[in-house]
Amino acid sequence: MVQSMFEELLCRCYVMDRLLEANLSKTAIWINSLLFMMLHMANAGFNWLPACGLLFFALAMSIIRLKTQSLWFVGAFHAAWNFAEGVIFGSSVSGEETVAIIFHSVPLPAKPLINGGEFGIEGSLISVLLDGLLLLLVSLYFLYKTKYKNKRHLTDI
User: Fold this and answer.
1) Residue 67 in contact with residue 142, Cβ under 8 Å?
2) pTM for the full predicted model
3) 109-122 pLDDT tens trace
């Protein structure tokens, strides 16, 4: 949980805030998300599939952080994900071994698209699709909220 909060502090606090101070919100979202993905490149089992999932996750968390101004929410979400993935379900977390308490996941080398192989479940096709869906839903939610808010203000005039 400490590692996930450190990653959030580095990417979605320090790097993102420096770029937001320069009024570069789109650049802030992309740069910190790419940095987040690159922080995991040296991990065991890293390839294009985990890279896509990590990028989708990072983009979604960056949008949430930008729109809510809450680092605590994205930090807690990230920590809860890592805790569930590693400690509860016993899967590798971003290629790092964990101590399983409830379940112990054994990756099947012949099924990396299903279980993520050495990288862990977040390197699986299922996780990447879910991260993509999360990004889509977060984007649509804040887009709708912004348009609805602007439309409501126009009718108040």
Assistant:
1) yes
2) 0.85
3) 777 788 888 888 88
